[in-house]
From TrEMBL:
<protein>
    <recommendedName>
        <fullName>ELMO domain-containing protein</fullName>
    </recommendedName>
</protein>
<dbReference type="GO" id="GO:0016020">
    <property type="term" value="C:membrane"/>
</dbReference>
<dbReference type="InterPro" id="IPR006816">
    <property type="entry name" value="ELMO_dom"/>
</dbReference>
<dbReference type="GO" id="GO:0005096">
    <property type="term" value="F:GTPase activator activity"/>
</dbReference>
<feature type="domain" description="ELMO">
    <location>
        <begin position="127"/>
        <end position="283"/>
    </location>
</feature>
<dbReference type="InterPro" id="IPR050868">
    <property type="entry name" value="ELMO_domain-containing"/>
</dbReference>
<dbReference type="Pfam" id="PF04727">
    <property type="entry name" value="ELMO_CED12"/>
</dbReference>
Amino acid sequence: MLGSIWGCFYASFLRYWLKWFIRQVTGKCELQRICAGCKPGAPRTTRAEYSLKNSKSLVLRLALEVEEDGVDQYLDLIVREKNVKTQKDPTFKIHLKVCLLQITGYRNLFESVEELRKETFDSDKVEHEEMLLKLWDLLMPDTKLESRVTKQWGDIGFQGDDPKTDFRGMGMLGLTNLAFFSEHYTEEARQVLSHANHPNLGYSYAIVGINLTEMAYSLLKSGALKPHFYNTVSGRPELQHFHQLYCYLAYQFDRFWVEEKPASIMEFNHYREKFHDQIKIQLLDPAVGLILTGHWKK
């Protein structure tokens, strides 16, 4: 209770006068101090985002909604609004531009991911079918798929004879992540598949992969992935960066599963949540970067 009262008092009153006082002493606005005094990446961008969001200036608050092609113009508006002398602080606009690209890029990334999630797998679309068949070829290069609808799909962890039914929850986002992992980290993906087919510790590779897509999606939607992307992408995060994050989750979950040695697949939900909690703890680190280092293929 007292914490809530203090937080409200600080945000609505004390913070404004504290900022004013420090500016009188230093001659620099809060954004200038953040850009000059914080390390690039999440430490700087997170604080810049907080400053813009809680500013009493409409110009600064609207900076969070600017599109990429309007960033430069909006930087000039901020400079004028805060009366920044760029001759004395030549790096201010450079650093703040990176922050704005990361902040607004995160929002646009979620919109792109959401669009892909809502796209339903359609067997009549050639590109959808080609991606699915390519997934098989990448994971099972020595085994020919006998037909489009076959029990063989179970060998890579689908539930039924036709994988399209398994993509209902995450749409094309689920398939795209599976295909991206298999194409760009082929050796790692095949290693994970071999573990998934273990007689005792096995799990459904594709179904678990789609489940991990849901995990990545929920982390993105909640904003929990901001520190990761602010640290690993110097500018706008793109769809490929989200797919790379998925690859990290897929590989690390497999390691986690093997190390935990669950008694059976019936315990999946418990271990899935335990893994999820570990990832959320990692994301609290300002220096976090969930990058899978391995045999990356461009």
